[in-house]
């Protein structure tokens, strides 16, 4: 009897976890915190940016293809219209380059301003705020998706313009630099307009005004504009992409000036994307 009781007591004692003994609680707490930290690593910028980019590209592929056709046909129609008043030379260079970059402006500036304006008004920013991604990844991912979505229309417009005006196709490879740099500058501007606008209707209006400015100041030859209009043209981010592309149509392109224009376009893109990231943080906390 005594042996069985002592054996039962030993069994009762054996089922008590060792962690509840004095001095063990702190060690258990540290292990739990360590495991929690391992399960939830901090999201890094590059993987987050790639994830947002793929998601936005899939969304844009479904919803924006009709609008891409509109942007391409619009630029082609402008070139056909200008063909009746422009014969060739530097004016033709400006028309073709401006029409090609106009496709980028339509998608990266106009549509992105509308997208972020609607996202802010509908509470969609709250969804991104709950995700473990940096704010810069959201802005850069969306801007990159919209900018890369313009590649087919820009190439088609440039090829059609060169054939229409009899320009050489030799240096069309410059579009590989013009599209991402001008797209980044215009997408950052469009995202900032959409995030800073108090209402989505105003974001739409600002995006359309920006696209109209890219149309009027980018397609028309600069030497025919008044001085104050030329100054406003220099403030437009897409101008430097237009200038870089237009310089390549000459018989002997000055590549130093082309690189200078591309560098300015890249600098404007960095600034505009930084402003868009700040605007995203500002809108997400409200």
Automatic annotation (TrEMBL):
Principal location listed in the UniProt entry: membrane
Bilayer topology term: Multi-pass membrane protein
Domain ABC-2 type transporter transmembrane: 61-246
Top-level taxon: Bacteria
Cellular location(s): Membrane
Key words, A-Z: Membrane, Transmembrane, Transmembrane helix
Keyword Ligase among UniProt keywords: no
Protein name: ABC transporter permease
Lineage: Bacteria, Bacillati, Actinomycetota, Actinomycetes, Kitasatosporales
Transmembrane segments: 65-86, 92-116, 137-166, 172-195, 202-222, 257-280
Keyword Transmembrane part of the UniProt annotation: yes
